[in-house]
Design brief:
This protein is mostly helical. It has helices at about 10-65, 115-195, and strands at about 80-90, 90-100. Helix 1 (about 10-65) runs antiparallel to helix 2 (about 115-195). The longest helix has about 80 residues, at about 115-195. It starts with 7 loop residues before the first helix and ends with a helix.
Length: about 200
């Protein structure tokens, strides 16, 4: 704890700081709660997307197994870009999945079976879900980092700054009270000395 001046000006400064800390703390607590809620929502969305991805993957593998073809559908689909936007949650910028773009690849219709068109569409859906999941996980990472910082600030105010300011105010009041009492006593002693003279 830093050395505190025992003056009226310092008392006012400590009171102002305490007021400021107590006014700012509820905002931080609210931000912390909002970030925790958003993390739970993102986690639920990731689970939902993973379930969709698993279902699509199982469906695609059944098709490939039924037709018994040994095809590499991955050669027929290439990602050209993933577009994201910037969103804002509780004052932090996060990526928001917008869409995924694929290169146009044409294939020989005589060489590939009829179901390849549907298979390529399913594979594109799978890749889009995968990209969306990665963006959601990045969102979660950024929000968790902000939550960590906010939690540290809440703890700093609750456990350090506010108690420190209250203790400083108490010490200054005690000192000023003692000084005032001493001044009164000195005044009475001086008065009694004057009366004697």
């Amino acid at each position: 704890m830093a050395k505190v001046k025992l003056t009226k000006n310092e008392l006012k400064r400590q009171k102002d700081m305490l007021k400021r800390f107590q006014r700012y703390l509820p905002t931080l607590v609210l931000k912390k709660q909002q970030l925790q809620m958003v993390i739970r929502q993102v986690e639920a969305e990731v689970r939902k997307k993973l379930d969709q991805q698993q279902k699509l993957n199982d469906d695609l593998m059944q098709w490939v197994a039924v037709f018994g073809e040994d095809l590499a559908l991955e050669e027929l689909v290439r990602i050209s870009g993933i577009n994201t936007e910037v969103g804002n949650i509780a004052g932090i910028d996060i990526p928001v999945f917008n869409r995924i773009e694929f290169e146009d690849i044409s294939w020989d219709l005589f060489r590939y079976p009829l179901w390849v068109d549907a298979g390529v569409d399913r594979l594109k859906e799978l890749l889009a879900l995968d990209a969306e999941i990665r963006v959601l996980e990045r969102q979660k990472e950024l929000i968790e980092e902000e939550l960590r910082i906010t939690t540290q600030r809440v703890n700093l105010f609750e456990k350090v700054k506010i108690p420190e300011a209250k203790e400083n105010i108490r010490m200054i009041r005690i000192y000023l009270g003692d000084q005032q009492t001493a001044a009164v006593v000195r005044g009475k002693i001086a008065k009694s000395n004057i009366v004697e003279v």
